[in-house]
Amino acid sequence: MPRKNGNGMEVSRDPLLVLMAPPANESAEEKEVRIRNEKVAIARNAEIEEMLRLERVAAKKRGCIRVLLLGQSESGKSTTLKNFQLAFAPNAFRAERVSWTRIIYLNLVRSINTIIRAVSPELLGTNKSTLSSPSTSTLPSPISPLDRSHADFPLPPTAQSSAMTPSLSSSSQIPIDYTALFADLSALEGLEERLQRQLIPPDEPFPQYPANTNANGGGAGKRYTSHGEFFVYSTTGWKTAFSMLRGRGSLESRSSIDRRASVGADNGGRGGGGGDDVVGVLLEKKRAMIVLWRDERVRRALRRSSRIRLDDSAAFYLDNIDRIVQRYYEPSDDDVIRARLRTVGVQEHIIVHERQLTRDMASEWRMYDVGGTRSERAAWIPYFEHMNAIIFLAPISAFNQVLDEDRDRNRLEDSFGLYKKIVSSKLLAKVQIVLFLNKVDLFRRMINHQGISFSKYVPSYGNRPNEVESIMKYLKAKFKEISRDHSPAARTFFSYFTSVVDTQSTAVTLQIVREGIIRTNLKNADMI
């Protein structure tokens, strides 16, 4: 018979409530025992819930490893990320190579325009009729890549393509009229802007070059850094702009997962020509670009110019104009690895490893590429939590350079200070930190071929020999000392000398790094 309360209303006989209700004739002693047992049960339940939570966390760690790429601007973070993609998700990497076509074109066109701006004050007005010793364009015999120094603007190897005109044969010598040559190439200024516009959402204004902006692109609509480098924001806006171009050989840098959905997209002739025929303009100016880059007087003017600022990969693209400027060009792995597009903000990239070595090894890695200028470093801290590892890149070839945002700050000294802040962070006390002493290829050429004095720019090196091996030993010891003296807890020091544009040697290094990160991750999760 249903129970009724004092007002005569029926009381619900929910089975769970009935089960939990105290006995009708409970004594004080029985009540005390019951309450004590309930407290024990609640505590035990909380313990079980915590165990389940920890298991979920461990499972999450096994299923997804998070790696943060840190280092100053132009240290090689984005190139390292692309090497990870190539090494561990090669099918996905190659499926998106064509989407880098226009970024590579932008790199090439920007380099040509930068050269013209750098040498025109010296060369304009001194045309072929007034030069006492006219400049000539001569195609040299091939040379080994190891003999090239991008800083010295060495001559490239002979082009073999049948597309080359007879006037550019290896025996020809062509007096250069610089006024006419620069006028012929002036169309590339408009082409550079056209390529840049395709990276900006249609609702944002395009700035006039150069924009007066700070190092992180502050200011509405500004798209240039303080030294005139175009950049895009790592926001939905520019990603939307990429996706709009996807069907025309777009520039979008997507995650491994996203790429697979777009492999079958129409690439507009694979060259990315689209409706504005970027390739057509490049083909029309191809011969003039080669003449400019191979001209000896231009090279000499570049060496003397204080106005020059070329990307590390500029010489690579300029050496390969004949191969790249083709109607049906498809980028190679090396072309994509060297492609540069300055991005402001934090980017998350998902890499799904296409081969797992064991059942417990995580297949999905989330890698975070963050801006390295001083004004962007404040955004790093929120990403310190929940990271499994940090790869810190220090470009050792920058020992004779200063920061763009602080002309009094040596870039190598800045890397020392930045590394010290990272290893001393209590938030990162248990995070594995891997140091890449990067751009060794450029560093070797600077010391061995150009004879640049390391101690002139790094006084702490003292009177040690100006030799590559001695300097590298000093740099490794310096960073190891910083790690030992400033880490809040004992930390194993991991360091590698790298040239991340060398995909083969970098793949070997990344395999070692990957195994180390996974082993540390499993150990922290009490798996081994």
Automatic annotation (TrEMBL):
Chain positions recorded as GTP binding sites: 312-313, 438-441
Domain of life: Eukaryota
MF terms in GO: G protein-coupled receptor binding; G-protein beta/gamma-subunit complex binding; GTP binding; GTPase activity; metal ion binding
Region described as Disordered: spans on this chain: 126-168
Source species of the chain: Sistotremastrum niveocremeum HHB9708
InterPro entries: Gprotein_alpha_su, GproteinA_insert, P-loop_NTPase
Name the UniProt record assigns to this protein: G-alpha-domain-containing protein
Residue ranges, compositional bias (Low complexity): 129-146
Metal-binding is among the record's keywords: yes
GO biological processes: adenylate cyclase-modulating G protein-coupled receptor signaling pathway
Gene Ontology CC terms, in alphabetical order: cytoplasm; heterotrimeric G-protein complex
Pfam families per record: G-alpha
Keywords: GTP-binding, Magnesium, Metal-binding, Nucleotide-binding, Transducer
Binding site for Mg(2+): 343
